[in-house]
Amino acid sequence: MDKADNVIRYTKVATVIFLVLVVVADVFGFSITNYITRVWADREDTFALITLSTVYYLGTVGAYVVLIAFYKLLNNMSKDIVFDKANTKLMKIIAIALALMGVDCMVGTIAWFGTIYVGIICFFMMLVLFCVRAVFEKAIEMKSELDLTI
Amino acid sequence: MIVINLDVMMAKRKMSSGELAQRIGITQANLSILKNQKAKAVRLETLDAICRNLECQPGDILEFREE
């Protein structure tokens, strides 16, 4: 139990670090997209720059949603609220955000094909999360039946 | 549906909820779940304790009714 608490604590710290990294990525967003467009995508047109910038910023919005929801999920778990409807709702929010980020990355392939890899990872993570959510829902159902067995 | 007629039996035996809960070793909250038809399952040992303390048969407590 103590080990699980430590894992949750460290994951919360990691989530906060990732949030800070996303903020930094947002601050230097234009320089980063400019670099990606010119160097990685090897394109000089404004269309590619605007497309990649839009995809990039929409992606960071998704990352905020995912990280904040994940932090709330960890917070609930550290309070021993594990098999609860609130957690499955948060998982649904994360999965939908990941799906939208995946779609966002697929749109990004118009400007640079490399975004497809990030998109595929997003879709795969979404599937994993939906599976975990299904397991949680089953567990909640079983817990409710057990609680009502007198 | 299965209806739990615990109230009727308790009234016949003139036994309060608190007393029955204490005798069968469950909380009053759980006894209330049983009485209010909220329970999804009843353990045989709980039924055994109820029947022993109320001096009745399971059929006196459990009843099948068409919905």
Q: Quick check: average pLDDT of chain A?
A: 94
Order of H and E elements of chain A: HHHHH
What is the CATH architecture annotation of chain B? Answer: Orthogonal Bundle
Number of domains of chain B: 1
CATH topology of chain B: 434 Repressor (Amino-terminal Domain)
Order of helical and strand elements of chain B: EHHHHHE
**What helical percentage do the residues of chain A reach?**
over 70%
As a whole number of angstroms, the C-alpha radius of gyration of chain B is 11 Å
Report the major sheet of chain A.
Answer: none
Number of strands of chain B: 2
Layout of secondary structure:
The complex is a heterodimer of chains A (150) and B (67).
Chain A: H1 2-27, H2 29-40, H3 46-78, H4 85-108, H5 115-147
Chain B: E1 2-4, H1 6-12, H2 17-24, H3 28-35, H4 44-54, H5 58-61, E2 62-64
Antiparallel strand pairs in B: 1-2
Helix pairs in contact in B: 2-3
Quick rundown:
By secondary structure, chain A is mostly helical. Chain A contains five helices and no strands.
